[in-house]
Amino acid sequence: MTEQHDKVRVEQVPAARSASEPQTTVSSTEPAEILEAPAKSSRPWATWSRRRRWLAITGSVVGCGVLAAGMTLGPTGYEMWTQKDATLTTPANAAGLTLDTTDAAKSAADDLRTVLDAGFSLDKTVAGVYGDPAQASRSVLFVGGTAFLGRPGKELDQLFALLDDQAGGVRDVRDVDAGSLGGVMRCGAAEGSDSAMTICGWADHGSIALAMFPERTADESATLLRDLRTAIEHRN
Fold first, then answer.
1. pTM of the model
2. Over residues 130-141, mean pLDDT
3. Can you tell me the distance from the alpha carbon of 151 to that of 208, in angstroms, rounded to the nearest whole number?
4. Which residues lie closer than 8 Å to 175 by C-beta, 6 or more apart?
5. What tens digit of pLDDT does each residue of 195-235 get?
């Protein structure tokens, strides 16, 4: 953008008299002829004020752009850096549940792990069945894996879509609080299940996981998954 400035007016200065010209003496009785210089502007700061206003406006616009970029890219870069090096384990006890080590439980976990491996290219995957000591029918089936994920939300959508192909689908999927570890967490209801079953999953920049919660509501399942996650997911 080109700024327009007021043109500087060159004052007309009377030419000096030559030495040959007679010098006129002004009588003290006659009023002297006074050569008045053009009046100076009463607002000498006007030009600079306009320039400063343009600079201030330009600076504000640029500053807002930098701030917006920082707000957009800054947190994302920080999340990538802090979440990318994740590991998942299946501890013997987690969130009040106990890892089921029977052959039947291991077989069910391996089946779900195979589905995850087929749908994603992950560095490492884990799976397990966590039994509820209070009620065996409420055992939780968990599967997860680690890798760098650039778009956790999209990856989690793909994981739910994978279940649509393999297990009859998930309906009413909605975002829930991901807890202190951040990332994205969603829950939905399993289609075609004989009993009520909620499916919840999380994804961040270093891991993705999913769990099945028989006979639990979405709110109960989300709370339990957050508790399981703190015991299962670790960051270097």
1. 0.67
2. 95
3. 11
4. 184, 185, 186
5. 789 999 999 999 999 999 999 999 999 999 999 999 999 99
At 74 the pLDDT is 65
Q: Concatenated DSSP letters for the chain?
A: -PPP-PPPPPP-PPPPPPTTSPPPPPPTTSPPPP-PPPPPPS-TTHHHHHHHHHHHHHHHHHHHHHHHHHHHHHHHHHHHHHHSSEEE---SEETTEEE--SHHHHHHHHHHHHHHHHH---SEEEEEEEE-TT-GGG-EEEEEEE---S-HHHHHHHHHHHHHHHHS-EEEEEEE---TT-SEEEEEEETT-SS-EEEEEEE-SSEEEEEEEET--HHHHHHHHHHHHHHHEEE-
228 CB neighbour count, 10 Å cutoff: 24
Q: Distance (Å, rounded) from C-alpha 156 to C-alpha 147?
A: 13
Nearest to 176 by CA among 152, 158, 200, 198: 200
Listed residue (95, 116, 108) closest to 220, CA to CA: 95
